[in-house]
Amino acid sequence: MTDESTDLARLLGVELLDPGPEPARAQLEVTPKVCQPFGIVHGGTFATIAETLCSWATYEAVKGDGMAALGQSNQASFLRPISDGVIEAVASPRHRGRTTWIWDTELSDDAGHLCALVRMTIAVRPMPGGG
Amino acid sequence: MTDESTDLARLLGVELLDPGPEPARAQLEVTPKVCQPFGIVHGGTFATIAETLCSWATYEAVKGDGMAALGQSNQASFLRPISDGVIEAVASPRHRGRTTWIWDTELSDDAGHLCALVRMTIAVRPMPGGG
Amino acid sequence: MTDESTDLARLLGVELLDPGPEPARAQLEVTPKVCQPFGIVHGGTFATIAETLCSWATYEAVKGDGMAALGQSNQASFLRPISDGVIEAVASPRHRGRTTWIWDTELSDDAGHLCALVRMTIAVRPMPGGG
Amino acid sequence: MTDESTDLARLLGVELLDPGPEPARAQLEVTPKVCQPFGIVHGGTFATIAETLCSWATYEAVKGDGMAALGQSNQASFLRPISDGVIEAVASPRHRGRTTWIWDTELSDDAGHLCALVRMTIAVRPMPGGG
Fold first, then answer.
1. ipTM
2. How far, in Å, CA of B90 to CA of B118, rounded?
3. From CA B54, how far away is CA B48, in angstroms rounded?
């Protein structure tokens, strides 16, 4: 049963493991609901894992300063399909600026093969209502 | 209850409206399950809508030649948050090559504001087992 | 003879035609110096034309407010090679935010074929020393 | 005097140091001709260095099999401006497929600061006229 109050990352089963930032980590078990109709993991799943992970890890690092983290761009390249097992995601910060952070996320299959690369730009902005 | 045999696009509620290709169209109703925890649409949702739409529209155009369509890259830029209503997606083919198609997808909110842009590269390859 | 005080856009021969922004236009005559060794236009030339054009057009639009324009990302897709004639570049603004502008540039050959697409994100920031 | 038969990489002064592929290396001395009018390195210069380096390194690796290398996309993120010294470029292959290679290039200044990141997708195709 789907909890109607769930969010996308929980719906898909993204497990956040380590906020990093050197590096940050998450994983996801492959089930039909994260795949496209031909049974391989949907590109949107890779994008979702990376964006969830990088937004969370940026927020963990900047919230103490009253800042929020908001995805600005998500560039995913798909190298190799995955159809079962667990996806491992490892995100490394490449730039930690005052207004933007840039992360590179590697997504691999059970055998350790690199299957997707995602470069995220996260905007860092004052928390709405912060004060 | 979530049908365990569902796929990602159906789980999120992506509705494919028109295979295009000039242009192709889809829509999605905003509910908590497509959002991040702060109640705005997750970047992964925009990526998922665009990839579902562009893969489908490419496949519809090339399957008659025994070809399959596979996402190669998905570049999303997020311009403006959405927190309710219906997301409209319109995908226009910018290149229809022998081995790759390139699509630009515009995603807008109920008020017609452009909220995200996604450029997809789709690889066109002989259908596995085709013959 | 190369003027040692020239800048990259002038060195290559980028001609800025119209600051736009709906749309902005530039052109470049193809000569060996903008090509790679096999005689087709270098991908870096397409990136340079687009970045010169979008930075200029953004700056023209925001300088009255004491703001400067600085390239933040440049995403180029190459569709079709060019080996002679004149490259026409047309840049359309897709987002004009307070802190970032996003532009789509189409680069075409003499026959009007679309040969490259470039999406630029331009950061808009207070002019250094402005006041 | 500019040699009229030069190509873009030579015009700018890109020095190819090591074809890699683990990793490949190049460098470029900063002079006004690789900058924009405000005296910082033009984004197109970073794109040109990366594309020259990755195309060359891919070609060195595949030419023995009668294959050619052609840039398909170039995604550059600009982190930090450079106004003098020497730019060091280090390109690491992330995927070496039958039809595409993907490279990540890091571009740094004299002080070792990371200043730009470029992800290149290179198409690998049979050499035209190959036998």
1. 0.95
2. 10
3. 10
Alpha-carbon distances, residue B37 vs A105, B8, B55 (angstroms): 21, 19, 28
- Neighbouring-strand partners of residue B24: B91
Q: Identify residue D87 by its one-letter amino acid code.
A: I
- Minimal CA–CA distance to D11: which of D39, D52, D43? D52
Say which of C15, C51, C60, C88 is annotated catalytic: C51
**E-assigned strands of C4-63?**
15-18, 24-29
Tokens of A29: 């078990």
Q: Which amino acid is located at B127 in the chain? A: M
Rounded Cα gap, residues C4 and D33, in angstroms:
7
pTM: 0.95
Determine, for residues A75 and C72 on separate chains, whether the beta-carbon distance falls below 8 Å. Answer: no
Domain borders along chain D are 9-126
Q: Residue A51 catalytic?
A: yes
Query: Rounded CA gap, A82 and C99, in Å?
Result: 38
Q: In what order do the strands lie in the sheet with B67-78?
A: A15-18, A24-29, A86-96, A100-108, A114-126, A67-78, B67-78, B114-126, B100-108, B86-96, B24-29, B15-18
As a whole number of Å, the CA-based R_g of chain B is 15
Q: Does domain B16-126 have CATH number 3.10.129.10?
A: yes
- Name the residue type at position B109: D
Q: Report CB contact under 8 Å: D74, C70.
A: no
Interface of B with D in 45-74 (CB under 8 A): 72-73
Beta bridge partners of B12: none
State CA D105 to chain mean position distance: 8
- pLDDT digit string (tens) for B68-126? 999 999 999 999 999 999 999 999 999 999 999 999 999 999 999 999 999 999 999 99
What CATH number has the domain spanning D9-126?
3.10.129.10
Q: How confident is residue A64, by pLDDT bands cut at 50, 70 and 90?
A: very high
The owner of tokens 């924009």 is D36
Q: What is the pLDDT of residues B45-68, one digit of tens each?
A: 999 999 999 999 999 999 999 999
Measured CA to CA, the distance from residue C80 to residue A41 in angstroms comes to 31
Cβ neighbours, 10 Å, residue D58 = 30
Whether domain A10-126 has CATH 3.10.129.10:
yes
- Is the pLDDT at A52 greater than 60? The verdict is yes
Query: Which element (helix H / strand E) includes A58?
Result: helix A43-62
- Among chain B residues, the shortest Cα distance to D125 is held by B99
Pick from A1, A2, A44: CB nearest B8: A44
Residue with tokens 């940050």: A24
Instruction: Look at residues D47, D106, A55 and name the one whose alpha carbon lies nearest to residue C120.
Output: D47
C130, pLDDT greater than 60: no
